[in-house]
Amino acid sequence: MNCRSEVLEVTVEARQVEEAMLALLHTILLHRSSGKFHYKKEGTYSIGTVGTLDIDCDFIDFTFVRVSSEELDRVMRKAVSEFKDALSNSGSDGMGQISLEFYQKKKSRWPFSDECIPWEVWSIKVNVVNLANEQERQICREKVGEKLGEKVINVVEVINRHEYLPKMPTQSEVDNVFDTSLKDVQPYLYKITYQITDSLGTSVSTTMRRLIKDTLAL
Questions:
Q1: What is the C-alpha end-to-end distance of the chain, expressed in Å?
Q2: How many CB atoms lie within 10 A of CB 123?
Q3: Are 200 and 129 a contacting pair, CB within 8 Å?
Q4: N or C: which end of the chain has fewer CB atoms below 10 A?
Q5: Model-level pTM?
């Protein structure tokens, strides 16, 4: 099986990291989750509904839609908070990457553990910049909102392609494909990882500052 890999990149100031990551991760998971499966007998099941919520960001001019599951939101917030803390501890300017990997399990014979086979990975590269004053922060607030809108459209376009998805499992195999631990939603099995690098790419930092300078000049 070939694993699809998609890369998104955003440049934000430190206070925007959490909201930007939640907006993108929740957007992906919204399209990679289903309602809970309710099996009547083997081979016969119904699927519950997936509720949604509109979330307004505090530090970005942006509203995103997420699955209404509070359990799933807590998991996302915990992962993103750990990533944000690692970024802030790396120095005044930082660059990191948070990845959302979807996988399915393949049962192995005893005594071997199950094999986890990834089928789609989303990597979000994050560049953190420091801004000089409140005027620059206000411009960054608007520009990051515009960029996030473009990224969300990109995510939806990618997901709407006719690409591989794990086939719907039988009742005995549902845990090999979906995360069934949540009471109100059933995302595909996934894991979140991150990595931090010490310094910000000069070209990316310069691009954001040039955007702000050009806007100030208008």
A1: 51
A2: 17
A3: yes
A4: C
A5: 0.87
